[in-house]
UniProtKB/TrEMBL annotation:
Cellular component aspect of the GO annotation: cytosol
Chain's role: Catalyzes the first step in hexosamine metabolism, converting fructose-6P into glucosamine-6P using glutamine as a nitrogen source.
Full-protein residues shown: 238 to 599 of 599
Localization of this protein: Cytoplasm
Catalysed reaction, written as an equation: D-fructose 6-phosphate + L-glutamine = D-glucosamine 6-phosphate + L-glutamate
Protein name (record): Glutamine--fructose-6-phosphate aminotransferase [isomerizing]
EC numbers for this chain: 2.6.1.16
Keywords noted in UniProt: Aminotransferase, Cytoplasm, Glutamine amidotransferase, Repeat, Transferase
Main location: cytoplasm
Subunit structure: Homodimer.
């Protein structure tokens, strides 16, 4: 087993460290000089499509939420995101101009599979974004894009999430081009950023020691709020989920601008705020939300490339010229931080209590 872990303490750690390599696999043949290409998708795939519905569970649901921002921005297609277990019983109104996208690492999650069946039954065009070839979801969907993350053993998903987000980002560009809503200059800017992702994931690992040191300060307290705006909001949800899954500490993800509508009532020195403060997206807005929390005495851990005086602790990220690059770096920080806190608490990081890698019952 130790050999399988390649010298790492846990599979989760190995999988975090592998992310830059698997990401290159995800991109092979798909990122070309001046365009994105998916051989899985045929020419007229988007004919008759005017909206997108995404459906998933758990971490895959968070990837869906991230992509809802990207699809609307880059493809100009209206997007709705649904939790599969909710979607199934809400008597959803499905129209045939909807592309139904399911996201699943395992391809076996019961709720996601059933949601896919419902969409097919309603005659919708379906697309699966999945990590396991020949899984139930892959067999059922009209078309599949494989994420190519390799086998993921840690119950808490890391590299699968990273590759899902990458596929969805590439897809939003691909659709944007097909729908004729993206200028070449915009596409080139996005492609340039995409090309930097593996390096960003690799360099982000430099922060590991710092996360290890910081982890000892974050073992007690009322709980954690991960906050962010825009795509950093679903990243906050994902950071909170990672921490919950493996440390068993209470954590919530929240939109930074929404804290004042309730949760700020919880703020005191025992409340830990993990603030995602990217430089390239809504920095000043997020900063003023964090200042409000700091004024109520919340303990602040800021993750940002910009020094923030009011933070109790700081994780300084690199400067990047694209929000998605900041996104991927902060994703790694969240993963390492959750893992180090869980290890310090003596938990089995790869097999957390009460959880299963894939949930094949309703
Ligand atoms: C389980 C796992 C989660 C995962 C979720 C959805 O709850 O513990 O890590 O995100 O299922 O799984 P899927 O395979 O459909 O992505």
């Amino acid at each position: 087993l130790t050999a399988q872990k390649g010298g790492y303490r846990f599979f989760m750690e190995k999988e975090i460290y592998e992310q830059y390599e698997v990401m290159s696999d995800t991109m092979i043949g798909r990122v070309l000089d001046n365009e994105i290409s998916f051989e899985e998708i045929d020419e007229n795939f988007l004919d008759g499509i005017s909206r997108i519905k995404l459906c998933a569970c758990g971490t895959s649901y968070h990837a869906a939420l991230v992509s809802s921002y990207l699809f609307e921005r880059l493809s100009k297609l209206p997007v709705q995101v649904e939790i599969a277990s909710e979607f199934r019983y809400k008597e959803p109104l499905l129209t045939k101009d909807t592309l139904f996208i399911v996201i699943s690492q395992s391809g076996e999650t019961a709720d996601t599979l059933e949601a896919l069946k419902m969409a097919k039954h309603a005659g919708l065009k379906t697309l699966a974004i999945c990590n396991v070839d020949n899984s139930s979801i892959v067999r059922l969907a009209d078309t599949t894009i494989l994420t190519r993350a390799g086998i993921e053993k840690g119950v808490a998903s890391t590299k699968a999430f990273a590759t899902q987000v990458m596929v969805l980002w590439m897809l939003s560009l691909y659709f944007g081009k097909r729908c004729g809503v993206l200028e070449d200059s915009q596409i080139n800017k996005e492609l340039d950023a995409i090309g930097h992702v593996p390096t960003v994931l690799k360099n982000a690992l430099d922060i590991h020691e710092k996360c290890k040191r910081l982890s000892k300060r974050y073992l007690h307290g009322h709980g954690f709020f991960f906050i962010g705006r825009d795509i950093f909001y679903p990243l906050a949800l994902e950071g909170a989920l990672k921490l919950k899954e493996i440390s068993y500490l209470h954590a919530e993800g929240y939109p930074a601008g929404e804290m004042k509508h309730g949760p700020i009532a919880l703020a005191d020195a025992e409340l830990f705020t993990i603030a995602l403060m990217p430089k390239t997206l809504l920095y000043d807005k997020t900063k003023s939300n964090v200042e409000e929390l700091s004024a109520r005495d919340s303990t602040i851990l800021a993750i940002s490339p910009e020094i923030f005086d009011l933070a109790d602790d700081f994780i300084l990220t690199h400067n990047h010229n694209h929000p998605m690059l900041e996104f991927f770096e902060m994703m790694v920080v969240e993963q390492l931080l959750a893992m180090e806190i869980a290890i310090r608490l003596g938990n089995d990081v790869d097999m957390p209590r009460n959880l299963a890698k894939s949930v094949t019952v309703e």
